[in-house]
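User: Hi! I'm working on a homework problem where we have to compare a predicted structure to a textbook description. Could you give me the structure for the chain below?
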Amino acid sequence: MIGWLAGFVVVWVLLIVLSAAGMACRYRKGDSFHIALIIVGIKVYARVVHRVRFVGLEHAQRATRAHRAGRPVIVAPNHTAGADPLLVMAGLGFEPRWMMASDMRAEGMEWVWELARIIFVDREKNDARSAREALRHLKSGEALGVFPEGHLERPPRVSLPFRAGVGLLAKSSKAVVLPVLIEGTPQKDPAWASLWLPSRSTVTYLEPVEYAGTDLGAQEIADDLRHRLVDASGWPATERGPVITPTERFMIDLDGHYYDDRTGERVTVDEVRARTGGS
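Assistant: Happy to help. Predicted structure tokens:
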């Protein structure tokens, strides 16, 4: 029995190593074996922990072909949980460089952020630096992962407004945009708890779209992407989202109530308006 188990483990290790070797030149330009091995680990993690089901893989493959041809690609999913980037990547044939809110930058994980080449975004002010870095990355023919809502969907299964930034990046870089719908992830606060909680998640890759030849402005492109995801999900769209200023941070909990992120206390909509000057 022990010999059989040992043989099984050896076979699986060999399969993982061979898979990583096959990926080593496909995911990140100038990629190395250890990065490819991590990608294989992400795929195994998504299948085992989240039992992820992929829909629309033909659309993901089309985006993969565009990326391998040197085209810039923007991956634009809705945002449900901390596990979202890993689940999206598990079905792709390339590795997007993700944008992430700087206030979600957990201490003690700098090596992870550096390895993933995360572009951090300051949500409290107009962060031109991160936008320039993202655009530079795209114009070099690379892939970028952006959550256009800018926040976790709270309450769950409700579409938040998409920000104009994703439209500006798409228009300026002439990128192929791959909208992605994520469903079924663990709904638990804090967001990182979803990384170790099991689920039966579904990742649906929608048809890639290009905006370079259109007359749409940045916000119109963002709105178009949102409409595609709302149509695919059937979820309601809301105009109410978290409110963040240089002095105040009001987030929304799983029940749909505002709370002060600094104290954890729930606040009313009127309080939010009064303390943010009607934002």
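For your comparison, note the following. The chain is about 40% helix and 15% strand. The two ends are 65 Å apart (CA to CA). Good luck with the assignment!
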